[in-house]
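pasting for ref. prot 1 ->
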Amino acid sequence: MSELPAHGDVVVVGAGLAGLAVARRLQSRGVDVVVVEAADEVGGRIRTDTVDGFQLDRGFQVLNTAYPQLSRHLDVGRLDLRPFERALRLRTRGRTVVLGDPRQDLRAVPAALAAPIGSPLGKLALAAHAAAVGYLPARVLLRRRDLPSVVAWRRRGLGGTVTDTLLRPFFSGLTCDPAQVTSSRFTDLMLRMFVRGEAAVPDGGMWQLPAQLARLLAEGTVRLNTTVREVSPERVVTDRGTVTARAVVVATDAETATRLLPGLTPPRWRGLTTYYHRLEGGPPPGGATLTVDAEPSPVTNTVPVSAAAPSYAPAGVTLLATTTVHERGGQPQDASGPAEERVRRRVATLHGVGPGDLDHVATCPVPRALPAMTAPHRFRRPAVTGGVVVCGDHRATSSIQGALESAERAVEAVASRLGVRAVHEGG
C-alpha cells in the first residue's frame, strides 16, 4: 500500500460514480487530485460480483441511455450496452399481459386497449401523459407543481386501476416506494427517460461504469482502504494520515456525508433485495422483458437479465434477477427481504416454470439502495456546505443521472475556488 500524499490541489472523499466523475473532470483541467475511498474497490453502491460464473450486480440496476449526463462523462460505446426489450410484462388478475411500444410494433395498440389496466378514458389519459413527459422540454416538467406521484397521477386522470395496476407497481421498482409519495417531477422525468431511451446493462456488469471512469484517472489517484475520519475546507484526516488541499469534495453516500458534515440533513433510505436464480436452458417466454407483479406477492419485478446480456450467466443457463422492495403497505419489511423460498415460488409462476426448475444463486439485500425523494423534492441542493464541496445522488435525484449531475455542479464550485476552467466535455 503506497504512502498517502501529504497534499493535493483537491481531495475527493469517495470513489463512487460522483467522486470519480469529479476527479476525472478536474484532472482533465490539470488539477492535482487525490481520491480516498474506504472500500477495497471503486464504485460505491454500483458493484458487480462474480459468483460461480454469474455476474451479479449488487441490487438489480439498469442504465437508461437517455440520461443527459451519460455521454458527458462516459464513453458509452465502450460500455458495450445490452438493452432490454422496449416492452413490459404485467401480471394482474391472474394473467400476464404484454405492453409494448407502439412506435416499434403497431400490434401493441390493440394489445394495450384489451389489457385490464383501466378504462378507455384512463388508457387515453395514460397515452397523453406519456407523450407529454416524453416530448415536452424537461424545464416545463420541472416547473410543474411537485406532488406525491400518486396524487399527481390522480389529478391527471390516471387514478384507480391505471395507478394501482400499472404505475404504482412499475415505479415501485424504480423508487423503492410502493406508496408512491415520491416526487411527481422525478417520476415524470424517469418516464421521460423510458420514452426517449432504452434500459440496458453493460455486458460486463454495472460496475463497468465506475471502472471506466477510474481507468481514465492518472495512476495512483485513487487510494482504496482509506477511511476518512474528519474533513474541513482545506484538510482531510484519514486512518492513514492527513492530506491538506486547496479544496475538499465529499462525494460519499448520504449517510457518510451527514456524519462528516453535520450541517446536512440525515436521509431517509429506501431499500430493496435482489434475488438471483438460475434456470437451465434458454430464457422463459418474453425474453429480455421486465415482468412487473401487480398482484399481492413478495415480488416487485423480475427479469431474465442474461437474455439481454449473455455474459451475466454461463453458456446454456439463464440468470433471473428478481427485486422486492423493503416496504409494503406503508410498513417497512425485514431489511433482509422476504424468505427466498417464497420469492422463488412466485418467480416460477411469473415466468411460467416450476419452482424446482430454479436454483438459488445468491440474495443481495441493499437496505440503503436510494435516498428517499418524498414530494416536494429539492432537485438542486447546495454544492458547498461549511466551505466543503459536496456531491452525490442525495444532492440531486436518486439515480445515476442525479449522481453525475451533482458532480457537474461540484466541479463548477471547485473550479471557481481554484480559478480554473470547468469544461463540459464528452466521455
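and prot 2 ->
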Amino acid sequence: MEFGQLRVGLVGTGPWAARVHAPGLAEHPGTVLSAVWSRRPDAAQSLAKTYDAVAAGSIDELFDQVDAIAFAVPPAVQAEIAPRAAAAGKHLILEKPIAADLPGAQRLADAVTEAGVASLVMLTLRFAPETRDWLDGINQAGGWRGGGARWLSGALLGGQYAGSAWRQDPSGGALADIGPHAFDLLDAALGRITEVLAAHCGAEDLWHVLLAHENGATSTATLTLRLPVRPTVAEVAVYGEHGYRRFSRSGTAAESYTALLDDFAAMVSSGISTHPCDVRRGVHLAWIVDQVRALTGR
C-alpha cells in the first residue's frame, strides 16, 4: 500500500464484485483493496487471495481494517450493512438501488449525513467520460422540452446475472436494476424529476414511464431486461430549441469505476461529503422508483 491510499473493504463476491469492484480498487492509484467479506467465507477467501487482501471473518472485522467500504450485494443487504459502516466512520461506495425501498434508502442517507462520511452511488453511465461530455453540452445549450430513455436487454434471460434473486423479483427487474440509470440521466439532462405522470408494466418486464421535470419538460423511459435484444440498446435523447441530441452507451464499466474512484479519493482527501451522485441522489432515484411502483401496484 502506498502512502495516502484509501484502504477499501469489499462487501460481496458475486460477478460484479469480481469483474469491476475488486480489480478497480486494486489497480487505482488512490485505493487499495485491503479486505473482503461475504456471507460465503470460501468465496471471500478466494477473491481476497487474488488481490493479496484479507478475508475478514465478520463484518465488524472488516470495519476494523479499512477506511472505506465498497458494496456489491443485493439492495436489502446493502441497506442493512451500510448504515452500520457509516456509523463506524467508513466512507461508502454504494450500488444502485441503494436500498430495496424508499424508507430503507432514507435511513441509509440519514446515517451517512449524521456520520459526515463521503458516499458515491455506482451509476455506471453517469461516470463515463463520454456521458459527462454529453451532459455538459446539453446543460450549456438549455432550452430542452422533452426527452426519452430506452434500455432494452435480455440480461435476465440468461448469463451471469440471470440468477440474481432481487432482479428476478416482480418488484425488482428492470425497474430496480436499470431504472435508476435511466432516471438519473433524464434528470441530469432535463432537470429534476418532480412527478411520475404515468407508468405501466407489461409482459417481459417491459416498463413504460412518463415523467415530469421541474422546468416543465417531460420525458419517457422504456425499460426491460427480458427481451432478446442483441446488442443491448441503452440510449438517451433530448429535444428542444437546439434540435435533437442522442447519446448511446459507450465505454466500459471498468472505465466508469475508475472515474468514480477518482472522485471518491478526491472527496475523502479534501473532506468533502457532497457530490451530484452521492447517497442523496440514491434517495431521489429511490423516490422515483417508489412512485412508479405505487402507480403499477408492484
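The mean pLDDT is 94.
The chain is about 45% helix and 25% strand.
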